[in-house]
Amino acid sequence: MAMRLFGNRVSHPVRACILLARKVGQPLEEVNVDILKGEQFKIKDLPFRKIPVLKHGDLTLAESTAILRYIADSSPSGGDWYPKDLKKRAKVDEFLDHWHSTFNPTIFNLMRNKLFYKMLFRADKPDEKVIAELRKAKDSNNKLFNSYFIKGKPFVAGEAPSIADILATVTMDQTSLIGEDLSPVTAYMDRVKSHLEGYDELHKVAMEMPVTLRKMKMIS
């Protein structure tokens, strides 16, 4: 039975789920949710009114990290991406927790303030003071990622990439939409991308978002 993923490729967690499913050979039916039209607030299958949401038979998962774990554990080759080794899996889980608490909220709020200030905050221009603070936090998070989570290893769990690396890379790369400097993490991201066929094709969809928002006169 194919899994159904409610999402939009503009969303980096959605892209992470798609990339993993492709990598492990898991059939995935995408159900597009137009977030600019607010469809996430109208579709009853989205319990938290956000994306992604995975449905598989009678199972519903509404958190990105749970979806990634489930796809990996449901697929014969998924163990390569969510390692069975206890210590390696613990390092993957550690980053996924950090992603939820610290890593993603910083980037999420940076993107909101750079691209959606009119739509969300009814402001005529972005708050540069807030953006500067978020950029500083983002740079600090990237530095910590290199010094602690990678610390001389190719990937989070060691010598092989995992779901932690997919999620880290798409999250960092989301800031390329607003021209952020990714040079401190470029080498790491390139290593991860080399294992993910179709990465650039998916990311290209996200890169079109600023153009769409300009056409809607949502950003200058």
TrEMBL record:
One of its GO terms (biological process) is glutathione metabolic process. PROSITE patterns: GST_CTER (PS50405), GST_NTER (PS50404). Residues 1-79 form the GST N-terminal domain. This is Glutathione s-transferase theta-1-like protein. One of its GO terms (cellular component) is cytoplasm. The keyword Cytoplasm applies. InterPro entries: Glutathione-S-Trfase_C-like, Glutathione-S-Trfase_C_sf, Glutathione_S-Trfase, Glutathione_S-Trfase_N, GST_Theta, Thioredoxin-like_sf. Keywords: Cytoplasm, Transferase. Residues 85-219 form the GST C-terminal domain. It comes from Pseudodiaptomus poplesia. It is found in: Cytoplasm. The keyword Oxidoreductase does not apply.
